Amino acid sequence: MHSSGKKGPDLLVFSREASLIGQIRKLFQDDNLQLSFIHSQSGLLEIVECHPVKLLVIDATQIRRTANRTIGFLRKLRECNPRVQIILLIREQAFSLLRSVLETGSFQYAKLPIQDGELRVLIETALHRSKRDLPHSESDQAECIPGFVGNAFQIKQAYRLIARAARQDVSVLLLGETGTGKDLAASAIHRMSPRNTGPFVPVNLGAFPTDLVASELFGHEKGAFTGASQQVAGRFEQAQFGTIFLDEIDSIDEKVQIALLRLLEHKSYHRIGGKENIRSDCRIIAASNVSFDDLLHRGSFRNDLLFRLDVFRIQLPPLRDCPDDIPLLARYFLEKFSLELGKSVRTISEECMDILTGYDWPGNVRELKNVIQRAVLVCDDITMIPMDLPDRFQPIKNHRSTLLKIGMGATLHEIERKVIKKALELANNNRTETAKLLGITRPSLYNKLEKHGLK
Protein backbone atom coordinates (compact mmCIF):
# COMPACT_ATOMS: atom_id res chain seq x y z
CA MET A 1 0.00 0.00 0.00
CA HIS A 2 1.18 3.52 -0.83
CA SER A 3 -0.16 6.27 1.39
CA SER A 4 0.19 10.02 1.51
CA GLY A 5 -0.42 10.25 5.26
CA LYS A 6 -0.66 8.35 8.54
CA LYS A 7 -4.37 8.95 9.21
CA GLY A 8 -7.21 6.88 7.79
CA PRO A 9 -7.50 7.79 4.10
CA ASP A 10 -10.24 10.07 2.75
CA LEU A 11 -10.01 8.24 -0.56
CA LEU A 12 -8.89 4.60 -0.84
CA VAL A 13 -8.43 3.15 -4.34
CA PHE A 14 -8.44 -0.61 -4.92
CA SER A 15 -6.81 -1.36 -8.28
CA ARG A 16 -3.80 -2.98 -9.89
CA GLU A 17 -4.10 -0.94 -13.09
CA ALA A 18 -1.29 1.59 -13.33
CA SER A 19 -3.19 3.88 -15.72
CA LEU A 20 -6.17 4.26 -13.36
CA ILE A 21 -3.92 4.76 -10.32
CA GLY A 22 -1.95 7.41 -12.20
CA GLN A 23 -5.14 9.12 -13.38
CA ILE A 24 -6.56 9.44 -9.85
CA ARG A 25 -3.20 10.48 -8.37
CA LYS A 26 -2.80 13.21 -10.99
CA LEU A 27 -6.38 14.47 -10.57
CA PHE A 28 -6.06 14.92 -6.80
CA GLN A 29 -2.36 15.63 -6.31
CA ASP A 30 -3.06 19.29 -5.47
CA ASP A 31 -6.07 18.55 -3.20
CA ASN A 32 -5.85 18.32 0.56
CA LEU A 33 -6.86 14.65 0.59
CA GLN A 34 -5.49 11.63 2.39
CA LEU A 35 -5.12 9.39 -0.69
CA SER A 36 -4.17 5.68 -0.59
CA PHE A 37 -3.90 2.81 -3.07
CA ILE A 38 -4.09 -0.94 -2.43
CA HIS A 39 -4.26 -4.07 -4.58
CA SER A 40 -4.89 -6.82 -2.00
CA GLN A 41 -8.49 -7.80 -1.16
CA SER A 42 -7.56 -9.02 2.33
CA GLY A 43 -5.61 -5.81 2.95
CA LEU A 44 -8.56 -3.78 1.70
CA LEU A 45 -10.89 -5.39 4.25
CA GLU A 46 -8.38 -4.76 7.04
CA ILE A 47 -7.99 -1.06 6.20
CA VAL A 48 -11.73 -0.43 5.85
CA GLU A 49 -12.34 -2.18 9.18
CA CYS A 50 -9.61 -0.40 11.11
CA HIS A 51 -9.64 3.10 9.60
CA PRO A 52 -12.40 5.69 9.03
CA VAL A 53 -12.27 5.62 5.21
CA LYS A 54 -14.66 8.15 3.65
CA LEU A 55 -14.67 6.92 0.05
CA LEU A 56 -13.67 3.63 -1.52
CA VAL A 57 -13.08 3.46 -5.30
CA ILE A 58 -13.01 -0.15 -6.53
CA ASP A 59 -11.81 -1.28 -9.92
CA ALA A 60 -14.39 -4.08 -10.17
CA THR A 61 -12.36 -5.96 -12.78
CA GLN A 62 -9.86 -6.71 -10.00
CA ILE A 63 -12.41 -8.68 -7.99
CA ARG A 64 -12.00 -12.10 -9.58
CA ARG A 65 -15.12 -13.73 -8.22
CA THR A 66 -18.58 -14.82 -9.29
CA ALA A 67 -21.38 -12.25 -9.00
CA ASN A 68 -22.73 -13.85 -5.79
CA ARG A 69 -19.30 -13.90 -4.14
CA THR A 70 -18.67 -10.33 -5.29
CA ILE A 71 -21.90 -9.23 -3.58
CA GLY A 72 -20.76 -11.03 -0.44
CA PHE A 73 -17.36 -9.32 -0.57
CA LEU A 74 -18.90 -5.87 -1.04
CA ARG A 75 -21.40 -6.44 1.75
CA LYS A 76 -18.54 -7.45 4.02
CA LEU A 77 -16.93 -4.10 3.24
CA ARG A 78 -20.18 -2.42 4.23
CA GLU A 79 -20.30 -4.37 7.47
CA CYS A 80 -16.73 -3.35 8.26
CA ASN A 81 -17.63 0.31 7.76
CA PRO A 82 -21.36 1.04 7.17
CA ARG A 83 -20.58 4.72 6.54
CA VAL A 84 -18.09 4.32 3.70
CA GLN A 85 -19.14 5.55 0.26
CA ILE A 86 -18.35 3.02 -2.49
CA ILE A 87 -17.83 3.65 -6.22
CA LEU A 88 -17.46 0.70 -8.58
CA LEU A 89 -15.57 1.26 -11.83
CA ILE A 90 -16.58 -1.38 -14.37
CA ARG A 91 -15.43 -2.34 -17.82
CA GLU A 92 -17.99 -3.28 -20.44
CA GLN A 93 -17.05 -6.97 -20.48
CA ALA A 94 -17.88 -7.20 -16.76
CA PHE A 95 -21.45 -5.85 -17.05
CA SER A 96 -23.12 -9.26 -17.28
CA LEU A 97 -21.13 -10.64 -14.34
CA LEU A 98 -21.87 -7.65 -12.14
CA ARG A 99 -25.50 -6.98 -13.13
CA SER A 100 -26.81 -8.61 -9.94
CA VAL A 101 -24.35 -6.48 -7.95
CA LEU A 102 -25.64 -3.31 -9.58
CA GLU A 103 -29.25 -4.33 -8.98
CA THR A 104 -28.71 -4.19 -5.23
CA GLY A 105 -28.60 -0.42 -5.64
CA SER A 106 -26.02 -0.18 -2.87
CA PHE A 107 -23.21 1.35 -4.89
CA GLN A 108 -22.42 4.16 -7.28
CA TYR A 109 -20.76 3.03 -10.48
CA ALA A 110 -19.24 4.27 -13.72
CA LYS A 111 -17.89 2.78 -16.91
CA LEU A 112 -14.16 2.36 -17.63
CA PRO A 113 -12.34 3.98 -19.29
CA ILE A 114 -13.58 7.23 -17.75
CA GLN A 115 -12.76 10.84 -18.63
CA ASP A 116 -10.88 12.99 -16.11
CA GLY A 117 -13.75 15.45 -15.68
CA GLU A 118 -16.37 12.77 -15.12
CA LEU A 119 -14.18 10.89 -12.65
CA ARG A 120 -13.38 14.02 -10.67
CA VAL A 121 -17.08 15.01 -10.42
CA LEU A 122 -18.01 11.47 -9.37
CA ILE A 123 -15.39 11.36 -6.60
CA GLU A 124 -15.99 14.93 -5.38
CA THR A 125 -19.75 14.30 -5.21
CA ALA A 126 -19.25 11.12 -3.20
CA LEU A 127 -16.84 12.86 -0.80
CA HIS A 128 -19.35 15.68 -0.35
CA ARG A 129 -22.08 13.13 0.34
CA SER A 130 -19.88 11.47 2.95
CA LYS A 131 -19.70 14.77 4.84
CA ARG A 132 -23.33 15.80 4.32
CA ASP A 133 -25.32 12.59 4.49
CA LEU A 134 -23.51 10.15 6.76
CA PRO A 135 -25.42 9.48 10.00
CA HIS A 136 -24.27 11.16 13.18
CA SER A 137 -27.00 9.53 15.24
CA GLU A 138 -29.25 6.52 15.09
CA SER A 139 -32.23 8.73 14.17
CA ASP A 140 -30.79 9.60 10.76
CA GLN A 141 -29.15 6.26 10.01
CA ALA A 142 -31.63 5.98 7.12
CA GLU A 143 -29.23 7.90 4.86
CA CYS A 144 -27.08 4.74 4.71
CA ILE A 145 -29.84 2.29 3.76
CA PRO A 146 -28.76 0.65 0.48
CA GLY A 147 -31.20 0.61 -2.41
CA PHE A 148 -33.22 3.67 -1.37
CA VAL A 149 -33.31 7.04 -3.13
CA GLY A 150 -35.35 10.00 -1.89
CA ASN A 151 -35.25 13.20 0.13
CA ALA A 152 -38.96 13.79 0.84
CA PHE A 153 -39.94 14.08 4.50
CA GLN A 154 -42.27 11.06 4.28
CA ILE A 155 -39.51 8.95 2.74
CA LYS A 156 -36.92 9.94 5.34
CA GLN A 157 -39.40 9.24 8.12
CA ALA A 158 -39.99 5.75 6.70
CA TYR A 159 -36.24 5.16 6.41
CA ARG A 160 -35.70 6.19 10.04
CA LEU A 161 -38.32 3.64 11.07
CA ILE A 162 -36.61 0.99 8.92
CA ALA A 163 -33.30 1.67 10.66
CA ARG A 164 -34.99 1.57 14.06
CA ALA A 165 -36.87 -1.66 13.28
CA ALA A 166 -33.64 -3.35 12.18
CA ARG A 167 -32.19 -2.97 15.69
CA GLN A 168 -35.20 -4.60 17.37
CA ASP A 169 -35.78 -8.34 16.95
CA VAL A 170 -39.58 -8.03 16.66
CA SER A 171 -42.21 -8.66 13.99
CA VAL A 172 -42.58 -5.87 11.45
CA LEU A 173 -45.61 -4.97 9.32
CA LEU A 174 -44.91 -3.04 6.10
CA LEU A 175 -47.87 -1.25 4.53
CA GLY A 176 -47.97 0.62 1.23
CA GLU A 177 -49.33 0.60 -2.27
CA THR A 178 -47.95 -1.69 -4.96
CA GLY A 179 -44.51 -0.54 -6.08
CA THR A 180 -43.59 1.53 -3.01
CA GLY A 181 -40.60 -0.67 -2.10
CA LYS A 182 -41.87 -3.01 0.61
CA ASP A 183 -39.51 -5.75 -0.62
CA LEU A 184 -36.53 -3.37 -0.47
CA ALA A 185 -37.54 -2.27 3.03
CA ALA A 186 -37.76 -5.87 4.23
CA SER A 187 -34.37 -6.71 2.73
CA ALA A 188 -32.82 -3.58 4.29
CA ILE A 189 -34.20 -4.43 7.74
CA HIS A 190 -32.63 -7.90 7.48
CA ARG A 191 -29.25 -6.62 6.23
CA MET A 192 -29.05 -4.04 9.03
CA SER A 193 -30.17 -6.42 11.77
CA PRO A 194 -28.19 -8.78 14.04
CA ARG A 195 -29.68 -11.62 11.96
CA ASN A 196 -27.89 -10.51 8.78
CA THR A 197 -25.60 -13.54 8.82
CA GLY A 198 -28.65 -15.78 8.55
CA PRO A 199 -30.84 -16.34 5.46
CA PHE A 200 -33.35 -13.86 4.07
CA VAL A 201 -36.32 -15.80 2.67
CA PRO A 202 -38.91 -13.78 0.70
CA VAL A 203 -42.30 -15.42 0.07
CA ASN A 204 -44.99 -13.90 -2.16
CA LEU A 205 -48.03 -15.54 -0.60
CA GLY A 206 -50.36 -14.22 -3.28
CA ALA A 207 -48.48 -16.18 -5.95
CA PHE A 208 -49.47 -19.60 -4.56
CA PRO A 209 -52.80 -21.43 -4.86
CA THR A 210 -54.63 -21.24 -1.52
CA ASP A 211 -54.34 -24.97 -0.84
CA LEU A 212 -50.55 -24.97 -1.28
CA VAL A 213 -49.66 -22.03 1.00
CA ALA A 214 -49.47 -24.09 4.22
CA SER A 215 -47.16 -26.66 2.61
CA GLU A 216 -44.99 -23.88 1.18
CA LEU A 217 -44.59 -22.20 4.56
CA PHE A 218 -44.36 -25.16 6.93
CA GLY A 219 -43.20 -27.98 4.64
CA HIS A 220 -44.71 -31.46 4.47
CA GLU A 221 -43.95 -35.09 5.20
CA LYS A 222 -43.81 -37.86 2.64
CA GLY A 223 -47.34 -39.08 1.91
CA ALA A 224 -49.00 -36.05 3.53
CA PHE A 225 -51.13 -35.58 0.41
CA THR A 226 -51.38 -36.87 -3.14
CA GLY A 227 -48.11 -36.18 -4.92
CA ALA A 228 -46.07 -35.72 -1.72
CA SER A 229 -43.40 -38.26 -2.66
CA GLN A 230 -40.78 -37.03 -0.20
CA GLN A 231 -40.28 -34.85 2.86
CA VAL A 232 -39.94 -31.16 1.98
CA ALA A 233 -38.69 -28.36 4.24
CA GLY A 234 -40.87 -25.26 4.32
CA ARG A 235 -39.86 -21.63 4.09
CA PHE A 236 -39.82 -21.20 7.87
CA GLU A 237 -37.31 -24.03 8.13
CA GLN A 238 -35.20 -22.39 5.41
CA ALA A 239 -35.32 -19.06 7.28
CA GLN A 240 -34.03 -20.48 10.58
CA PHE A 241 -31.86 -17.90 12.42
CA GLY A 242 -32.62 -15.34 9.72
CA THR A 243 -35.63 -13.43 8.41
CA ILE A 244 -38.74 -14.50 6.53
CA PHE A 245 -40.60 -11.89 4.45
CA LEU A 246 -44.29 -12.70 3.99
CA ASP A 247 -45.54 -10.45 1.18
CA GLU A 248 -49.29 -10.14 0.51
CA ILE A 249 -50.02 -11.49 3.99
CA ASP A 250 -53.65 -10.44 3.48
CA SER A 251 -54.13 -13.23 0.90
CA ILE A 252 -53.86 -16.21 3.29
CA ASP A 253 -56.98 -18.09 4.37
CA GLU A 254 -58.14 -18.69 7.94
CA LYS A 255 -56.52 -22.12 8.20
CA VAL A 256 -53.06 -20.71 7.43
CA GLN A 257 -53.75 -17.72 9.69
CA ILE A 258 -54.39 -20.09 12.62
CA ALA A 259 -51.19 -22.06 11.90
CA LEU A 260 -49.19 -18.83 11.67
CA LEU A 261 -50.70 -17.54 14.90
CA ARG A 262 -49.73 -20.79 16.63
CA LEU A 263 -46.16 -20.44 15.38
CA LEU A 264 -45.94 -16.87 16.65
CA GLU A 265 -47.29 -17.86 20.06
CA HIS A 266 -45.29 -21.05 20.63
CA LYS A 267 -42.24 -20.47 18.40
CA SER A 268 -42.79 -23.91 16.89
CA TYR A 269 -44.81 -25.69 14.21
CA HIS A 270 -45.42 -29.05 12.50
CA ARG A 271 -44.86 -29.98 8.88
CA ILE A 272 -48.06 -30.88 7.05
CA GLY A 273 -48.78 -34.53 7.85
CA GLY A 274 -46.10 -34.63 10.55
CA LYS A 275 -46.01 -34.87 14.35
CA GLU A 276 -42.49 -33.59 15.03
CA ASN A 277 -42.43 -30.28 16.88
CA ILE A 278 -40.01 -28.01 14.97
CA ARG A 279 -38.61 -24.98 16.77
CA SER A 280 -38.71 -21.71 14.84
CA ASP A 281 -36.16 -18.96 15.39
CA CYS A 282 -36.58 -16.29 12.74
CA ARG A 283 -37.89 -12.77 12.46
CA ILE A 284 -41.16 -12.31 10.57
CA ILE A 285 -41.65 -9.30 8.32
CA ALA A 286 -45.12 -9.17 6.78
CA ALA A 287 -46.39 -6.81 4.07
CA SER A 288 -49.66 -5.80 2.46
CA ASN A 289 -50.98 -3.22 0.00
CA VAL A 290 -54.53 -3.29 1.36
CA SER A 291 -56.22 -1.72 4.37
CA PHE A 292 -56.36 -4.05 7.35
CA ASP A 293 -59.27 -2.02 8.74
CA ASP A 294 -61.36 -3.24 5.81
CA LEU A 295 -60.14 -6.84 6.23
CA LEU A 296 -60.95 -6.83 9.92
CA HIS A 297 -64.36 -5.27 9.28
CA ARG A 298 -65.17 -8.00 6.74
CA GLY A 299 -63.87 -10.67 9.10
CA SER A 300 -61.38 -12.01 6.54
CA PHE A 301 -58.33 -11.51 8.77
CA ARG A 302 -57.90 -12.51 12.39
CA ASN A 303 -57.52 -9.68 14.87
CA ASP A 304 -55.24 -11.70 17.16
CA LEU A 305 -52.88 -12.52 14.28
CA LEU A 306 -52.71 -8.88 13.22
CA PHE A 307 -51.75 -7.90 16.78
CA ARG A 308 -48.89 -10.42 16.66
CA LEU A 309 -47.64 -9.21 13.27
CA ASP A 310 -48.18 -5.49 13.86
CA VAL A 311 -45.58 -5.00 16.58
CA PHE A 312 -43.63 -2.43 14.54
CA ARG A 313 -45.60 -0.83 11.68
CA ILE A 314 -43.99 1.07 8.80
CA GLN A 315 -46.10 2.90 6.22
CA LEU A 316 -44.32 3.50 2.89
CA PRO A 317 -45.65 6.58 1.06
CA PRO A 318 -46.88 6.57 -2.56
CA LEU A 319 -44.70 8.40 -5.08
CA ARG A 320 -47.42 10.98 -5.79
CA ASP A 321 -46.97 12.24 -2.21
CA CYS A 322 -43.25 12.81 -2.87
CA PRO A 323 -43.26 14.70 -6.21
CA ASP A 324 -39.90 16.37 -5.58
CA ASP A 325 -38.25 12.93 -5.53
CA ILE A 326 -39.38 12.07 -9.07
CA PRO A 327 -36.48 13.89 -10.83
CA LEU A 328 -34.01 12.37 -8.36
CA LEU A 329 -35.33 8.85 -8.95
CA ALA A 330 -35.59 9.35 -12.71
CA ARG A 331 -31.92 10.38 -12.96
CA TYR A 332 -30.89 7.53 -10.67
CA PHE A 333 -32.62 4.95 -12.88
CA LEU A 334 -31.30 6.69 -16.01
CA GLU A 335 -27.71 6.23 -14.85
CA LYS A 336 -28.38 2.67 -13.69
CA PHE A 337 -29.97 1.42 -16.92
CA SER A 338 -27.73 3.42 -19.22
CA LEU A 339 -24.79 1.57 -17.71
CA GLU A 340 -26.45 -1.84 -17.59
CA LEU A 341 -27.77 -1.64 -21.15
CA GLY A 342 -24.53 -0.22 -22.55
CA LYS A 343 -26.26 3.01 -23.69
CA SER A 344 -24.92 6.56 -23.65
CA VAL A 345 -28.06 8.32 -22.39
CA ARG A 346 -26.84 10.96 -19.96
CA THR A 347 -29.66 13.47 -19.37
CA ILE A 348 -33.44 13.90 -19.42
CA SER A 349 -34.83 16.86 -21.39
CA GLU A 350 -36.78 19.52 -19.48
CA GLU A 351 -39.95 18.72 -21.42
CA CYS A 352 -39.56 15.02 -20.69
CA MET A 353 -38.99 15.69 -16.99
CA ASP A 354 -42.11 17.90 -16.88
CA ILE A 355 -44.13 14.97 -18.20
CA LEU A 356 -42.65 12.60 -15.61
CA THR A 357 -43.28 14.98 -12.71
CA GLY A 358 -46.83 15.66 -13.92
CA TYR A 359 -47.83 12.00 -14.00
CA ASP A 360 -49.66 10.46 -11.04
CA TRP A 361 -47.63 7.19 -10.90
CA PRO A 362 -50.27 4.70 -9.75
CA GLY A 363 -47.57 1.99 -9.90
CA ASN A 364 -45.25 4.15 -7.79
CA VAL A 365 -41.44 3.75 -7.88
CA ARG A 366 -41.66 0.37 -9.62
CA GLU A 367 -43.63 1.93 -12.49
CA LEU A 368 -41.15 4.82 -12.77
CA LYS A 369 -38.27 2.34 -12.81
CA ASN A 370 -39.85 0.34 -15.64
CA VAL A 371 -40.68 3.49 -17.64
CA ILE A 372 -37.09 4.77 -17.43
CA GLN A 373 -35.68 1.35 -18.30
CA ARG A 374 -37.85 1.18 -21.43
CA ALA A 375 -37.03 4.79 -22.37
CA VAL A 376 -33.27 4.19 -22.05
CA LEU A 377 -33.63 1.11 -24.23
CA VAL A 378 -35.35 2.99 -27.10
CA CYS A 379 -33.44 6.28 -26.77
CA ASP A 380 -30.92 6.84 -29.59
CA ASP A 381 -29.36 10.05 -28.26
CA ILE A 382 -27.55 11.24 -25.15
CA THR A 383 -30.73 13.03 -24.00
CA MET A 384 -34.04 11.33 -23.24
CA ILE A 385 -37.00 13.11 -24.87
CA PRO A 386 -40.81 12.67 -24.61
CA MET A 387 -40.90 10.42 -27.68
CA ASP A 388 -38.80 7.86 -25.79
CA LEU A 389 -41.56 7.44 -23.19
CA PRO A 390 -44.40 4.88 -23.52
CA ASP A 391 -47.59 5.80 -25.40
CA ARG A 392 -49.51 6.83 -22.30
CA PHE A 393 -47.07 9.73 -21.84
CA GLN A 394 -47.35 11.02 -25.40
CA PRO A 395 -49.10 14.32 -26.27
CA ILE A 396 -52.85 14.25 -26.80
CA LYS A 397 -53.79 12.51 -30.04
CA ASN A 398 -55.79 14.60 -32.50
CA HIS A 399 -58.15 11.76 -33.34
CA ARG A 400 -59.49 11.53 -29.78
CA SER A 401 -62.87 13.13 -29.38
CA THR A 402 -63.06 16.24 -27.21
CA LEU A 403 -66.88 16.22 -27.25
CA LEU A 404 -68.62 15.98 -23.92
CA LYS A 405 -72.34 15.19 -23.51
CA ILE A 406 -74.06 17.10 -20.71
CA GLY A 407 -77.74 16.51 -20.07
CA MET A 408 -80.17 19.32 -19.35
CA GLY A 409 -80.69 19.86 -15.66
CA ALA A 410 -77.15 18.85 -14.67
CA THR A 411 -75.80 20.85 -11.73
CA LEU A 412 -72.63 22.95 -11.99
CA HIS A 413 -70.95 20.48 -9.64
CA GLU A 414 -71.82 17.57 -11.96
CA ILE A 415 -70.70 19.50 -15.06
CA GLU A 416 -67.35 20.41 -13.50
CA ARG A 417 -66.75 16.79 -12.50
CA LYS A 418 -67.48 15.55 -16.03
CA VAL A 419 -65.21 18.19 -17.59
CA ILE A 420 -62.33 17.24 -15.29
CA LYS A 421 -62.82 13.52 -16.00
CA LYS A 422 -62.78 14.21 -19.75
CA ALA A 423 -59.64 16.32 -19.44
CA LEU A 424 -57.93 13.53 -17.49
CA GLU A 425 -58.89 11.08 -20.23
CA LEU A 426 -57.56 13.34 -23.00
CA ALA A 427 -54.31 13.93 -21.11
CA ASN A 428 -53.73 10.22 -20.43
CA ASN A 429 -54.06 10.92 -16.69
CA ASN A 430 -51.12 13.35 -16.82
CA ARG A 431 -51.85 16.02 -14.18
CA THR A 432 -49.73 18.73 -15.78
CA GLU A 433 -51.41 18.30 -19.20
CA THR A 434 -54.84 18.14 -17.54
CA ALA A 435 -54.24 21.44 -15.75
CA LYS A 436 -53.12 23.04 -19.04
CA LEU A 437 -56.26 21.80 -20.82
CA LEU A 438 -58.46 23.25 -18.09
CA GLY A 439 -56.48 26.50 -17.87
CA ILE A 440 -55.82 26.15 -14.15
CA THR A 441 -52.77 25.55 -11.96
CA ARG A 442 -51.77 22.10 -10.76
CA PRO A 443 -52.59 22.92 -7.08
CA SER A 444 -56.06 24.05 -8.20
CA LEU A 445 -56.48 20.83 -10.15
CA TYR A 446 -55.52 18.72 -7.13
CA ASN A 447 -58.06 20.61 -5.00
CA LYS A 448 -60.78 19.92 -7.57
CA LEU A 449 -59.79 16.26 -7.88
CA GLU A 450 -60.15 15.87 -4.12
CA LYS A 451 -63.42 17.81 -4.14
CA HIS A 452 -64.92 15.49 -6.76
CA GLY A 453 -63.41 12.27 -5.39
CA LEU A 454 -61.24 11.79 -8.48
CA LYS A 455 -57.86 11.69 -6.77
Structure description:
Helices cover about 45% and strands about 15% of the residues. The radius of gyration is 26 Å and the shape is flat. With about 450 residues, it is an alpha/beta fold. The strands form 5 sheets. Strands 1-3-2-4-5-6 form a 6-stranded mixed β-sheet, with helices on both faces. Strands 8-11-14-7-15 form a 5-stranded parallel β-sheet. Strands 9-10 form a two-stranded antiparallel ribbon. The N terminus is likely disordered. The protein is built from 18 helices and 17 strands. It folds into 4 domains: about 130 residues, Rossmann fold; about 170 residues, P-loop containing nucleotide triphosphate hydrolases (Rossmann fold); about 70 residues, Orthogonal Bundle (Helicase, Ruva Protein, domain 3); about 40 residues, Orthogonal Bundle (Arc Repressor Mutant, subunit A), CATH 1.10.10. Strand 5, helix 4 and strand 6 form a beta-alpha-beta unit. The N and C termini lie far apart (about 60 Å).
